[in-house]
Amino acid sequence: MIRAIINITIFMGILSIFLFAVTQFLGTEDEFQIILSDTEITLSPTAIVTLGITSVILIWLFFKICNFIVATYHFLNGDETAISRYFDRNREKKGFQALADGMIALALGESKTATLKASKAQKFLKKPEITNLISAQAAEQSGNRDKALKFYKELLSQEKTKFVGIRGILKQKLEDGDKETALELAQKAISIKPNDNEILTTLFELQLEKGDWIAAQKTLSTKYSSGLLPKDIFVRREAILNLAIAKDNLKENSTNAALLANKSSPELVPAAILAASVQLEDKKKRSAINILRKAWSKSPHPDLAAAFANVEPMESADERYQRFKPLIKMHSGSPEVIMLEAELALAAENYTEARKIMGDLAEKKPTARSLTIMAAVERGTGAEDAVVRAWLAKALGAKYGPMWTCTKCKTIHNEWLPTCDQCNAFDTLEWIETEIPAKIDKSTELLPLIIGELEKDKKVPTEEKE
266: Cβ–Cβ under 8 A, 6 or more apart, which residues? Predict the structure, then answer.
């Protein structure tokens, strides 16, 4: 700013000196004579000043005309000039206006208008990397997928638009159900833009659907390292993938994968059960028990109880009851623990204790399992067959209770899976209440492995007990 003030001051000083000199010159009364051969011209000071100014203007105009002629020649010759830049600016203005109109038309769902505007923009701008995308999206919107595919393929010809072209074709292949080609395209897109969240998510889902857990694990790690996934979600999903790898024995160190899954998410029931079985195979009974107890402390589950029972398969019913007491105390009063304790009492043939434990649970929370337990209690205490059949009849029409259910599509699964069989969603199976009615033929089918295994060992049919 100070420099600008100095420049203005200098300019005003020079201008003042010039005007002062001109004023002094005009104030003189002397005439000036110019003699050219035989011609004598007498000029006043005013005429001399006027002549000088006119001469400067004429010289300036002469140079401007010369520059214009030269510029016109270059323009006609195809060289870049001020004239060509002027016309180029006008063309760009019209082109970008058409491009903006095309984008607005696309947003409004006017695919025909968007196509026309894209063509007009291409005419003025000569930038297919911009206009082809709008043309492809307009074609998609109007249902002309072949035309859209043509534009997407044209985008593949340039490095800076190749990713956009691949993504467009990938979308079409997904809509067509061509998962193999879609997977290949997703891998190509990631090689161009490794941290794109949309493509990483698509690639992850395709790998899961294919059952390629190891590749999906790598994609998951990429998402996390790129800051696209919170740590808690990453840890949970990595644990599930490790569990899937271990279940399918995809690695030589699948045993380590099972243990890693349990370490990452100790509350994940299937991981705890698999890790415990691995420890039992290695003769590490104490470690197996600790794993199951830790998972049970998070949330009681019948599969955990069955796995805990399997730790000592040859023990007596009374011994098993005593071994389960620490687990029962962790969640005393919860429906799952009440039914578990009642089943343990039934296995020990302590029917009166089983009835006492059940209390009014079968009335307050009637499920196929709780009602079947009551049927077993009545049979054990010597009730008439009509009473037993009445409980079993209720069990037939009651809901199952908690089951592995997909929270996305609500599909019921008999066992936990990494992905839903119905909608292929990942990590959506939760142990929640269902409204599905039970369909059973025999009461013992609803009793967990805890009783079932003991009954096998005893090999005593129900009729003999009666």
Answer: 272, 291, 294, 295, 298
